[in-house]
Design a protein that fits this description.
Blueprint (H helix, E strand, L loop, with lengths): L5 H5 L5 H8 L8 H9 L23 H17 L27 H13 L5 H12 L7 E4 L5 E2 L3 E8 L4 E7 L7 H15 L8 H15 L2 H14 L6 E2 L12 E5 L14 H4 L2 E2 L11 H15 L3 H10 L9 H14 L1 H4 L4 E2 L5 H6 L2 H7 L6 H19 L3 E2 L1 H16 L2
Length: about 425
């Protein structure tokens, strides 16, 4: 919940919340010796990510027609059912379950689209990149910097990141947004929905349009780099002095709606961290605050009670608090209600387990996957809008812990958080 619950961090817990997670001694996650080692560990130069060999310089399409063309090839493949599995020449039918490790419920066709987008990592040509810099920072933008690498070291769906050096020698990462991205979000989401509809029969209980509307709002937030800079500064203040987490500083003179400059931070992919020393793994840099959001107490008051009910093993309370949260209407079938409660109980196991919970040993994702058909068939209303973002982030956190085979005393941390939350609400 690090990147999601900024309202909680600002309100009930203030700046002490992050530190308290680590400073309550043994039984609260990490002991005093772990904290001492983390504070004394030397800052090491870590490899910086680089674009793959497949990356190439290409003008970024800005119009709806050109973007639709990018979806067109995938749509034709999906209609024909000609997506070939990576393991051989087997043809997969539309809607056939995708076997991707243990956390994916996505069809193979949609997985193929996302994988192609992730791997392509094309970047803007020099003239297009310079045009954005001039439009955002002015024609004298070079006076602010000693150097800027022309080829980015990272590229994603809405922008690319270049390494640079300020006049005072500070190394920075400069994120530059692709032209036309913010203006085309609505049409892009509509295109994605069209591809989904033509590729498979979407169950009514999926509420795909509501989900994509939430995605559209988050994409709009991510395109506002001034908003992201403000969120990053907020978290940097909240985590100041924390021995484990670090948020790079925002470079204000390089911050506009479409350009964001921050201190450069090294890193390696998560799945390459297992061989690193504990001292290094105890130091985490947080990046990318574009989708950060606040949650109102009308949501968090009920949500935290759902989690507490699961932590206490109280199935009846899970059902009632889910209704209070407006996750359920109260008129669902018994089969749906039972499946919903079971899913919550499975996902609540880390908070119900006494002592450290072993994320690497569980099969929670597969167990929840078995409940998905019932949940999609019988759901009567879309879940609260807030849960789309929150559950996506929590799923990512659970998966990260599983990949790292982390052992975390989640129950102790949650119980402490729960009591401090309500103490602050009643103050």
């Amino acid at each position: 919940m690090w990147l999601e619950c900024s309202r909680l961090l600002q309100g009930p817990f203030r700046g002490s919340w992050a530190q308290k997670l680590h400073q309550d001694g043994p039984g609260r996650g990490l002991g005093e010796e772990d904290i001492r080692k983390a504070r004394e560990a030397r800052i090491r130069k870590t490899p910086r990510p680089q674009l793959s060999d497949r990356s190439r310089e290409r003008k970024v399409p800005a119009s709806r027609i050109s973007r639709l063309a990018n979806f067109g090839e995938e749509a034709e493949e999906i209609r024909a059912g000609e997506i070939t599995s990576k393991g051989g020449t087997e043809k997969k039918r539309p809607g056939q379950p995708c076997q991707v490790e243990d956390n994916s419920f996505i069809s193979p066709q949609l997985q193929h689209i996302f994988e192609r987008v992730r791997q392509s990592a094309d970047f803007m040509p020099r003239w297009q990149m310079l045009r954005v810099l001039e439009e955002e920072l002015g024609r004298d933008w070079q006076a602010k910097m000693a150097s800027l690498e022309e080829v980015p070291f990272a590229a994603a769906s809405i922008g690319q990141v270049h390494q640079g050096v300020l006049r005072d020698g500070t190394e920075v990462a400069v994120k530059i947004q692709y032209p036309g991205v913010a203006q085309s979000i609505q049409s892009d989401v509509q295109n994605l929905l069209a591809v989904l509809k033509m590729s498979m029969a979407l169950p009514e209980g999926l509420f795909a349009e509501q989900s994509l509307q939430a995605l559209q709002r988050e994409m709009a937030w991510e395109c506002d780099y001034r908003r992201e800079a403000a969120c990053a500064q907020n978290f940097r203040q909240l985590l100041a002095g924390d021995p484990f987490f670090r948020v790079p500083a925002v470079i204000q003179e390089l911050c506009t709606t479409r350009v964001l400059g921050m201190e450069l931070a090294g890193g390696v992919p998560l799945d390459q961290c297992q061989g690193l020393s504990q001292e290094v793994r105890n130091q985490v840099t947080l990046l990318d605050f574009g989708a950060s959001r606040e949650f109102g107490t009308e949501f968090t008051d009920h949500y935290i009670e759902v989690v507490m009910a699961a932590a206490n093993g109280d199935r009846d309370q899970v059902l009632q608090k889910s209704r209070d949260l407006k996750f359920l209407t109260g008129f669902e079938t018994k089969a749906f209600s039972d499946a919903h409660v079971e899913a919550v109980m499975i996902l609540g196991e880390p908070f119900a387990t006494q002592g450290p919970y072993d994320f690497g040993a569980g099969d929670n994702a597969r167990r929840v996957q078995g409940l998905i058909p019932v949940l999609l068939q019988h759901r009567l209303r879309p879940p609260p809008e807030e849960t789309y973002a929150l559950h996506r982030k929590l799923a990512g956190a659970f998966l990260a812990c599983a990949r790292l085979r982390a052992h975390i005393a989640c129950r102790d941390l949650f119980q402490d958080t729960y009591h401090r939350y309500w103490a602050s609400r009643q103050a």
